[in-house]
TrEMBL record, chains A, B:
InterPro entries: Ald_DH/histidinol_DH, Ald_DH_C, Ald_DH_N, Aldehyde_DH_dom, Aldehyde_DH_Superfamily, ALDH_KGSADH. The keyword Oxidoreductase applies. Keywords: Oxidoreductase. PANTHER family: ALDEHYDE DEHYDROGENASE-RELATED, SUCCINATE-SEMIALDEHYDE DEHYDROGENASE, MITOCHONDRIAL. The lineage of its organism: Bacteria, Pseudomonadati, Pseudomonadota, Gammaproteobacteria, Cellvibrionales. Gene3D superfamilies: Aldehyde Dehydrogenase, Chain A, domain 1, Aldehyde Dehydrogenase, Chain A, domain 2. One of its GO terms (molecular function) is oxidoreductase activity, acting on the aldehyde or oxo group of donors, NAD or NADP as acceptor. This is NADP-dependent aldehyde dehydrogenase. Residues 13-462 form the Aldehyde dehydrogenase domain.
Amino acid sequence: MRISGDIYYQGEWHKGESEGYQALDPASGKSLEPVMSAASEVQVDTAAQAAAEAFAEYRNTSLTERAKFLRCCADEIMNLGEALTDRVSAETGYPTARAEGERARTCGQLRMFADYIESGDHLDARIDTAQPDRQPLPKPDLRYVNQALGPVAVFGVANFPLAFSVAGGDTASALAAGCPVVVKSHPSHPGTSELVGRAMATAAEKSGMPAGVFSLLRGDNAVGARLVQAPQIKAVGFTGSFKGGMALHKLANERPDPIPVFAEMSSVNPLVLLPEALKDSAETIAKGFVGSMTMGTGQFCVKPGLVLALEGAELEAFLNAASEQLQQTDAGVMLNEGICSSYDKGLTGYLNQDFVQVLAQGREAQSEQGFHARPTLLRTRAEDFLKHPEIHDELFGPASLVVVCKDSNQLRSVLDTLDGQLSGTIHSTQEELAHHKALVDLLTAKVGRLVINGFPTGVEVCPSMMHGGPFPASTDARFTSVGTAAIQRFLRPVCFQNFPEPLLPDALRDSNPLKLTRVVNGTLSQEAL
Amino acid sequence: MRISGDIYYQGEWHKGESEGYQALDPASGKSLEPVMSAASEVQVDTAAQAAAEAFAEYRNTSLTERAKFLRCCADEIMNLGEALTDRVSAETGYPTARAEGERARTCGQLRMFADYIESGDHLDARIDTAQPDRQPLPKPDLRYVNQALGPVAVFGVANFPLAFSVAGGDTASALAAGCPVVVKSHPSHPGTSELVGRAMATAAEKSGMPAGVFSLLRGDNAVGARLVQAPQIKAVGFTGSFKGGMALHKLANERPDPIPVFAEMSSVNPLVLLPEALKDSAETIAKGFVGSMTMGTGQFCVKPGLVLALEGAELEAFLNAASEQLQQTDAGVMLNEGICSSYDKGLTGYLNQDFVQVLAQGREAQSEQGFHARPTLLRTRAEDFLKHPEIHDELFGPASLVVVCKDSNQLRSVLDTLDGQLSGTIHSTQEELAHHKALVDLLTAKVGRLVINGFPTGVEVCPSMMHGGPFPASTDARFTSVGTAAIQRFLRPVCFQNFPEPLLPDALRDSNPLKLTRVVNGTLSQEAL
């Protein structure tokens, strides 16, 4: 399929009216064809208006129609074939296996939401039947069901060109909820975004969805800002940097009508290594840790960026094994020049501190072209860490900082200073874990996900996933951006009081035609009334 | 029980360090004893810190312990006896029956949340079991459960001195969730607030809850602002004016770590009267409408403030009946001087417009003392309403504006210009309603609750209630402040990955010791694993 550099709204492809640019292959630094045009302010406004117009129709589509549309999106993405995975690799430096794996996850998410909305569980249907004779006042018939919130703006992220971009988790969950989506694609992978956009556009058309149910824009931060300020937009999904997420959050809250921004932003994902676990398996843990920290050139939001451990022979054995492992690791390609230079700058900041030592580094890059990063393992003492907040922030890329603690109390003090996190991990024996209840409780209060004897990278897509966490991991700790619960961001309940039964939404009819599990007078029921 | 004028934090009563004031009886305008002291900035900070310290213990209390505490709160409020209802009447002008009814609702809410958390449904427990042999990667064991968000600031509201104040819905739902509460009580009813605070303090002590689980502050807007800015506070519950809610929302979002503000603010609650319904029962509807608009001197957030109807003989019959009814209605006491003067000023604004006519007014106040409002029914034409946004806003008090529309299209245009609403109401025959699908759809998109052939006042407390709505009805349309779903504002999910089964929270243990209904591998189950 040809990449034109166009953008998509009102059900058609258009040349963007703002100045265009070309993507770069980050492995070589070379430009990729074609020139990608960018949206003007008027084009952003038009897309937002088209989404609002589509909403009136799309919110009333049946769950079956919507599920069919989502499955068709997945099919059309697969139909792009190698043109898609090749372009992903060209624009990100990711190997084919990663591109294929991410494509599978993306299509899996679309199909998962199709299945999930067909179950109707997201509707949270509730019925309280009337009690006309109740004293002192009669009780009316009340029925409650979730409805779509409104058009959603979705921002693509650099490090997941498929799974958190044009047809990623935010788009899939918003469309599943019944909300039209306007995507502001990420500038790093415009060709990938267009290909996926073409698949989405074809799927919308084939499924008979209203023009405006899906739009694909491209451009700089001003395009994103304009979109978040558009009065038709009712929520924002974002994954990316703290700075970017907070800028959108500010804009959204300064609107005359503030809207929620679900931004997944910043996390160092502390990894706590307890001594008994290290005694048993220092080498295995070291191997897993280095793999997790360097996977995807460390460009994961759940990369373990901070290791907390007690001083002693067990820790030194672990550090030796990890250092050895890291020294055999190649430099990796980073996604773009900005991310690469941030990594270099951040790392230099650490290296300039006399209280931070380099434990080990991976191999240097073989090429002088493109954007490469050298994996690096750093070490500091807890007392220095506590004194220096400048080394507490996330360093996006293949680096991790080991904080050596004198005892459990000091380790808990370090944890206590940390901000909210997407994930926290503990390596320990079961007996050891049982003795560290305070540590577990403290870490639980800081994170969205607690991992035992594993690594935080590899975020499973399922009902039990929580990908989000206390600020600044995300702007709202109450919501996940991965898994079926992600749909809850884009729904709002409506209560129908004394509504004529034949005119109620199907989810609330006496006969329960959708075969939902509903809360009837406070009790779960799958029956008709 | 003696009212001291003190405030409560760290499990003790203290004299407030800021300048005090006396409450007024709004019926007479006379001061009420004693002088009520106000919190200093240091006292606000101390209360917030005490709440954070209590959180570490309170969040880990069992559901049974927490339910017992909530029931004990209800018992202690009842134990206050007539001292409480008398003080409510003195501080608000509400008759005894209203004070008693609101007390019943308040205690009912506390007991409802006790029952609800014992069911464990709010935990939303989910389990996805491991698949160690899955290709290409093994699936870990993942378990998801809601946990308490953190200390919550609750703002009491003028018009519900019990049900939306110290021990009202926000407090009950936050405590049920496992969140300590710091109340900033409303200046209009400080004595009522203290009495309820004393009941809460006694209940906390009797139930062995940590000091700091509940605090009661008093003071001006600066006290509220300081509380919302306290880093220990993680969410805010507010009911009141648009101006007040938005001020808190702004403060909360300008914090280094933004927190959610659940503010229920502003709504005109449109009432649509279709001709067939009026033909059948103009008089009955008129009587119900006047009762709803003047109940509590019109000081309800769901007072029907706007009536939309088609011109014609049916409407004139309704208006005649409503006018007659209103003329027989007494002036009512308003809650305080500020609310009374806002009503007078707002009403004068309407009366000064030559496109607004007075249809009828209630009787004038008999007393020159105190704060009284005269019920007023106004009329305008749809074309004038559409031209004049200055008459679109809520007028808090016993007034309502009838907008006369030429036809259904014009009626929908008027609806289309309205902001988000807590409620919308339609009076119609079932046949008529079936013919107005576009109207129903439009109104549904604007409101949190849709009422058919009833009146919006009287908000039932139950699982199916939605009290909230699109902005500016509330700051976040996704949440209700009434009913069991209100607890969702104060919970966040945590995911446990490969956690040793014996150390998991009870809600996630294989044996299902809490007998919860859980989502196990995507399917609801009440069984052990």
